[in-house]
Amino acid sequence: SSYDSIYSLSNSMLDRFCLQILPKINNKIKSFNLEISSMKRILLSANYPNLFELGIFNIEKEAALCLVTRKDNFT
């Protein structure tokens, strides 16, 4: 399955994705499957008015608990 191999994006790929690609497609994104190390940067790089599903990969139990209990995660 496609979930068997989850890899982090390199910094240059993440830069291009956040600065060049996302601004062109952010209104069309309905679902994201993100790796935890790049999640915050990707989510803060644009508004996603049609986003209704978020999958998070490579996340530790403590980080998952923090995401759902802290109010200041994305400020």
Q: How much is the radius of gyration in Å?
A: 13 Å
Dominant shape: globular
Q: Tell me the distance between the termini.
A: 34 Å
Alpha-beta content class: alpha+beta
Low-pLDDT runs of 5+ residues are none
Strand order in space, largest sheet:
1-2
How much of the polypeptide forms β-strand, as a percent range? 5-15%
The multimeric state of the shown protein is single chain
Topology as a string of helices (H) and strands (E): HEHEH
Largest sheet, described in full? 2 strands, parallel
The proportion of residues forming helix, as a percent range, comes to 40-55%
What's the number of helices? 3
What does this structure look like?
The chain has about 80 residues and is of the alpha+beta class. The chain has a domain at about 30-75. Helix content is about 45%, strand content about 15%. It has three helices and two strands, in the order H-E-H-E-H. The chain has helices spanning about 10-25, 35-45, 60-70, and strands at about 30-35, 55. The protein has a two-stranded parallel sheet with strand order 1-2. Strand 1, helix 2 (about 35-45) and strand 2 (about 55) form a beta-alpha-beta unit. The longest helix is centred in the first third of the chain and has 15 residues, at about 10-25. It is globular, with a radius of gyration of 13 Å. The mean pLDDT is about 85.
